[in-house]
Structure formats: C-alpha cells, structure tokens
User: What shape does this take?
Amino acid sequence: MGGLVWDYLGTLTSRQVKEQSKKMANLKHKEQLEKSRNAQLMEDAKKREDNLNESSQQIKDTLRQKEERIEELEEALRESVQITAEREVVLAQEEQAHAQSEKQVEDLLVAMERVKQELEVMKAKLSSTQLSLAEKEGHLTALRAERRKHLEEVLEMKQEALLAAISEKDANIALLELSSSKKKKTAGRGGSPEKGKG
Assistant: This one.
C-alpha cells in the first residue's frame, strides 16, 4: 500500500505538488478563516446573548419598576376613590342637612305667616273690642251722669221735703207756743178778780 502511494507521488510532477500544496495552504487558510469567523460569530453570539441577558434584566427591572409604580398608582387610586366616596358621603349628608334646614326655614316662615295672620285677626278683634268697650264706657259714663243727676234731684227733693217738714214743724211749734201763751194770758186774766175778792 505504501509503495503504491510512493509510486503515485513519484509520478506527480512538481507542479502538481505545488498546486496541491497551494490548495492545502488555501484549505488551511480557509479553515483558519472559518475558525476565526466561527470564533467571532461565537463571540458576537455571546455578546448578543450577554446583551440580551442584560436587556432582559433591564426589561425585568423596568417591568418590576413599572409593576411597583402600577401598584403605587393603584393604591393611590384606591385611596382617592375612598376619599372621593367619603367626600360624597359627607357631601350627601351636608346636602341632606341643607335640605332639612331649608325645610325648617320654610316651616318657620309658614308658621310666622300663620302667627302674623292670627295676630292681625287678634288686632282686629282687639280694635273692635276696644271700640265696643269705649262705646260701653261712654254709655256707662252717661248712665253714671244720669244716675248722679237723678240722685242729686232726689237729694234736692228730700232736702226740700225735709226743709218743708221742718218749716211745718216750726210753724206748728210756733202755733202751739202762741196758743199756750194765749191760754196762759187768758188764765191770768181770769184769776185776778178772784184774788181781789178774797
């Protein structure tokens, strides 16, 4: 077998040997280039992988930050919704209280108007009563004056009657005294002769 190879090599020309060597060198060079290219590709792939890993980590970090931010925003939103709900409750209570106050004011106004009307009626009645009372007072005053006049007239009549009675008694007394005096004189005249005779 080795002899045949050597025989074959022996038959090759130096040119063919050179060409073959050149081809081998080219093949080695291509192989070297291919290895270098493969190494470069591997390095590039590794870099890309590292970059992808780094990018993936950055994306993960970004996603985590965004998730945390979303959680913060959701918490803030929940708080805002709760605050809004509480404010709405307070606002509803204030509106209800305001409505109740308005109704109370309306009721008070109605009551005041009713009292005002009742007061007007009472004033009218009072005015009528005062007028009637004034009329009655005038009538009573007139009656009192008339009664006083009547009493004065009666008193005057009594005084006149009393004076007349007194005058009549005085006259009777005077007549009696006069009659008694006459009787005494008459009796005195009748007793003197008897005294002389004795």
User: Anything to note?
Assistant: Helices lie at 2-11, 14-197. Residues 194-198 have pLDDT under 50 and may be disordered. The radius of gyration is 80 Å.
